[in-house]
Amino acid sequence: MERKKILPVKYPMISSYHTYAALMSVLQNYEEAMPWVHSKYVQIQAWDASPPMGHLVRELYWDNGCPFIRNQYIDFCTVVRKWGSINDFLIDFIDQGYYSFFAIEQHGIPTFNVPPGKVWSHQVFVYGYDLSEEVFYIADYISWRKYDYYTIKFSEMTIGFNNIDEIWYNHQFERNGIHLLKFIDVAKFDFSAAQLKKVLTDYYNGENNVLAPFTYTQGNDANASKHIFGIRFNQALIRYIEHIWHSGHTFIDFREFAVLVDHKRMMVARIKFLSENGYLKNPEKHILAYEEIFNKSQLLITLISKFNMPRGKPQILESIINNLTDIDDRERVALPCLIGDIFDKDVPSD
Q: Is the N-terminal amide bond of 51 cis, ω within 30° of 0?
């Protein structure tokens, strides 16, 4: 057993939801995985509600499709029966090159700043340990919902694992256990520019190209019949803000706007990937167009933060709607031009 081991991580391009952020924290360390990354996370799926609950569409769970990740799943009972403690389990698998992703009860652990009396079980992403300091290296949303990397003590990990609310966890995540993720360095992926053009076109047309649309176990199942896709998400966000305005509500759920920011950040990175690998004509024009869209999406988060402050001014809602409308207008112009300039072949242009 080593005294200290930290598996490689990079801050993820996508951080709106934990499964995306954890996977990208691993994949972004390896250039050979980037063609797969830029083939995914194109589509947005949401339902037309308030808020619209949007997700970037990839395969939503670890065992659905990434050729560069070996996934194992071990239930909590097996961890206790075979390893005796969560700490011994994590150290054992980190030594074998595995990251871990699972939920712990975060109430009572100072790092997480959970309000007194609030029960809060949430996933953590574990990527290292230090025996001399008796800490694990983890990632989660800790500093005002910002995804970041931290350490927690061995004793805190034990408390959090032992106090997990399994009934709540099963309801939220369907099964109570630990996902183990390991990068496969011999994996291959054949990038297809033609397939990417099709998915981008589906996004632009708001068409469903998802084989099995994601349905939530929480809330009203009737929402499953209201799925929207692609660029229509922009208009769904506008309707959400209009609902806030007309209802007099004083709080905006910013998570759906974080999905929008992630999507535009990925589009900028994807265009640069296409350019660097010879798949794109006029790359500077497309990079500039989507950088402007991305910057405007980031501004939305600032405006929402101001609105959510005490005595936030309703006039801010008008600025948010105007900004969303501008994003939608710009993307409806920029995306067809981009699609038209992607070389429709799978061998990069010289």
A: yes
CB count within 10 Å of CB 267 equals: 26
Contact predicate 183/69, CB 8 Å = yes
Q: Which of 193, 229, 197, 191 is nearest to 336 (CA)?
A: 197
Domain ranges of the chain: 4-39+69-183, 193-341
The listed CATH number (3.40.720, 3.40.228, 1.20.120, 1.10.1220) that belongs to domain 193-341: 1.20.120
Task: Tell me whether strands 44-47 and 55-56 are parallel, antiparallel or unpaired.
Answer: antiparallel
C-alpha span between 248 and 92 (Å, rounded) = 53
- Quote the DSSP letter at residue 260: H
Q: Is the distance from CB of 55 to CB of 236 less than 8 angstroms?
A: no
Question: Considering the entire predicted model, what is its pTM?
Answer: 0.89
| Whether the Cβ atoms of residue 224 and residue 210 lie closer than 8 Å to each other | no
288 vs 292: CA distance, rounded Å? 6
Q: Are 69 and 184 in contact (CB under 8 A)?
A: yes
Amino acid present at 239: R
Mean pLDDT of residues grouped by 10 in the chain (350 residues)? 91 90 95 94 83 61 74 88 94 97 87 77 93 96 80 95 70 68 94 94 89 42 67 93 90 90 97 97 98 98 92 88 98 98 70
Task: Give the integer Cα–Cα distance in Å for 330 and 63.
Answer: 36
